[in-house]
Amino acid sequence: MTTLLPATAALPSADFSQDTWWIVLLKAVFILVFLLLSVLMALWVERRGLGRMQTRPGPNVHGPMGLLQAVGDALKLVLKEDFTIKGADKIVFVLAPFIAAFSSFMVYAVLPFGPAVSIFGVTTPLQLTDIPVAVLYILAITSFGVYGLVLGGWSSNSTYPLLGSVRSSAQVISYELSMGLSLVSVFLVSGSMSTSQIVDAQTQLWWVVALLPAFVVYYISMVGEVNRLPFDLPEAEGELVAGHMVEYTSMKFAWFFLAEYINMFNVSGVAVTLFLGGWRAPWPLSTLGDGVLNTGWWPMLWFVAKVWVVMFTMIWIRGTLLRLRYDQFMKLGWKVLIPVALVWLVLVAVVQGVRQFTDTDLTTMLLWIAGVFAVLMVVLLVWPAGKDDEPAEEAPATRADIVPGTSDFDAFAGGYPVPPMPGQVLPPSPRRARREAAAMAAQTQEKEGHDG
Q1: Contact, 234 vs 243, CB < 8 A?
Q2: Structural domain total, the chain
Q3: In terms of residue numbers, what domain contains 261?
Q4: Which of 79, 164, 255, 296, by CA, is between 20 and 30 Å from 228?
């Protein structure tokens, strides 16, 4: 079992001292090409995978097994007519998709693809750069990217995009809190916020094993952060008709679309780096040949493979679950994820504090904590919701009890606003009554003026 590192690291462990300007440029171009090609492949994998899950072929015409379908979609977006609606704030309307796309490309700059290798005779880490607060940089960039969604919906000067942008702002506040709390436990046990040092701290034990509750909270939060089903409330087609993107066309829409898929790779890469050992080979491959598979260019293969595994789980969730209601979505974030992340953070802090003064084995402490969490989960699952032996009170009138054709319909009778059923009528709107009264008064004055 691994020994947790003390929180004394101040500098990133990756050595970039031999990097030249052309090495940095080469790494930056590689990240750009890697993300663009990965998005094209992700589109094909998602359509093909969802097709198999839903018993349909998926793309199978353009290219072998439909591999060129994503290329055709990209060309269609490039060649479509691009227009800006009349009432939009034109500068912000054009700037918003670029903010979203530009932010999405910046996360992989601090994610390590592998250890130090030789590139044209220069020994350099397979990482563009690293800083002592790399994870805070990632959280800042992901928060900044949401401005693109918010500004895009606001600048459209339309109702549905505005609702989508408001949902985006509420969503990022709610789920970045739980995401950040889940990552703090990684900082505590790794002793650093540098991505390269966090990977080094997982040499013998991946944090997904030692910090499983934190990983579960992070995974749920990351799906909500990138607006994927069942959390795609900012662009819910059934209620907001694509939400913040409904007024965008051609390449401006493509930038939003590209940012969403790159952000999926971003959160997957962060999950791999912080919880799944980063570029290290999975067991038992890591034990073969005295760790030879963790040297050279092999680690890049393990990193990309892990990222694609996490990506596919998000695609799998999209083909499995339905979209949550907005109140359910907020309740999950504020009443479940944030409290669980806080409790787990306190437990990890207690463990780290106890281990500084005692020689307690880490395995023993983790087993005790896992046992306590298991007991709590069982209690919550089997705890009765109420006493079944008490006589049920008379249920209040519901929407089904409303007499069709009457104006006594209560849209909030079930606890959540719903439209009326066929034959039911909503109460008259006070604003509509005032408008009709003002119109009648204007007509009366006009008629009296003609008569006079």
Answers
A1: yes
A2: 1
A3: 83-112+128-381
A4: 79
